[in-house]
Structure formats: C-alpha cells, structure tokens
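hey so i finally got around to running the thing on that chain from the lab meeting. sorry it took forever, my laptop kept dying and i had to restart like 3 times. anyway pasting the input first so we r on the same page abt which one it is
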Amino acid sequence: MPAKSVGFVFRLLLAIPLVILLLIGALSSFYTVSPEAVAVVQRFGKFTHVADPGLHFKIPFGVDTATIVPIRRQLKLEFGFATPGATNEDQTSNRPDLESDMVTGDLNATEVEWVVQYGISSPRDYLFNVKAPGPTLRDLSESVMREVIGDRTVDEVLTFGRTEIESDALARLQALVEKINMGMRVEQVQLNNVNPPAPVQRSFSEVNRAQQEREQVINEANGEYNRVIPKAKGTAEQRISGAEGFAIQRLNEAKGDVTRFEQLLVQYDKAPAVTKQRLYLETMNEVLPKLGGKIILDEDAQQFLPLMNLNQSNGKAPAAPVTPSR
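ok and heres what got predicted. didnt touch it at all, straight out
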C-alpha cells in the first residue's frame, strides 16, 4: 500500500474519535430547566450556583453537572396504600400493610392510611444536607403518625379526632424537617382510610352506627327544643304582661274606691242621715234591676192572690213573694 494511502487512513482513524469526542462535548455543554424546576450546578462535585428555568450552558465532559430539582411541584407520599402509575419513586412503599398497622393510646389496634404532601423549599439543602431526602421523609412521617396515634384513643382515631390528628401530625413533622434542615416544606397531612382490624370491623361499624343515631336523636331533640321553648317563653311573657296589667288595673280601681269612700265619708260626717238615705237608694237602684220580677208585701198583708192573677194575665210566670223581715 502506498505511503500516501496509509497516512490518509491513519488520519481518518484519528479524526473519527476526535469528531465523536467533539460531538459528545457539544451535546453535554448545555441543559434545559423546565418552568417548575431549578438546576443545582456543581463543578468537580462542588456546588457553584442554582440556575433558573431556561436554556443554560456548562463545561462538558463531567466538569459541570446540573441536577434538576422540581421546587414548584407538589410531591406526595402515600402510606398504607399505593396508587398505580406514581411518577415519584418515593411516593409509595413496598410494605404498605406494615405502615398502616398501628396501636392507639388505649391499646387498640387500627389500620391508618394517610398522605403527606410536600414541596422543596431549598434545592441546595435538599441535595446536600440529607443523603436520601425522600426515604428520610417517609421514615419521619411514619414515626410522627405512630406517635400521634399512640397519644389518642381508638374512638378519636376512628371518629371525631381526625382533624386534630392531621393538624398535630403536620406541626410535628414540619418541626422535624426544619430541625434537620432538609430543605423541604410539609404542606399537608391528610388521613385517608382509618379502619379497625378486619376481625372487629363489624363491631366497630355497629358502634359508629349507634353513635350516628345518637347524634341524630340529639339533633332532633334540639330542633324540638328550639321549636317549643321559644313559644313557651313567649306565652309566659304574654301571661306575665297580662298579669302585671291586671295588677295595675286592680290597684288603680282600689285607689279609686278609696278616694270615693273618703269623699263619701266627708259627706257622711256633714249629713249622716241624708248620706245614708242616698247610699241606700243608689244601692237599691243598682241591685233591684238584677233581681227580676219581685212582689214586696207589707207584713200585715193577708192575701196576695189577686196580684198573682194579674201577673199571670200578662203571660208571665208568677214571682215569688218576698216578705220583709221584721
């Protein structure tokens, strides 16, 4: 083979790796950050800066490395169950049954499923302060939830204490995350399904049904109370007002009678006989019309049948005779 051909082949063999190397360098000299994330850039493994969303350039061949961190995405962890198709590798566990088995403060077993929603607040702390932030957060969440459940009775866990459990677990977990400086923020802790163990689930369902019926009866009783009591109070106030008005009326009438009696007493002192006669006539004028038909006979009268006959001729019933007392 001619020397010229040998040189050309040799140069070609040297050029191919060089082109490949240049191509690899060109492809690894830039990176793109999505709008929901930032890039933590390292040079020879040392942190340099945080890059915002967009297109950026870096030194190729592994000198600069950019780690994408989704700081604007809400991430979640599931405990006691697993949603198919999860994109976050830390979202589910391979032992959900063990995570959900817990013991309450009154030594009752229960199965608790819950969700922790979190975000990344500091990309640098998230990458460098904890070796495995996702699994670490899972361990912390499980520890906190077992502690919170262990402080409460089974009735609180299954029925009326869910909101308090969620808020308490959120506060404790966020305090631990800040203490370790994990660069994460816990946004929500939400209980999903809380059930008693399968062997006693039917009994607990009956207890819950009885409690719901109890609440229903209490609500109905309160409704009846609100309907009857205001009406009774209104009637009582009306009667009290009527009684007070009647008392004032009687008091005024009594005062009027006293005043009238005092005036009569003054006249009586001036002319006893005339006043006595006037009072008698006024009284008889008031009383006699209320008595109906009467026949008044003198004590010496011997016969009153003609008077009876006169009354009968007018078509009226005979009146009973009245004989003045001696």
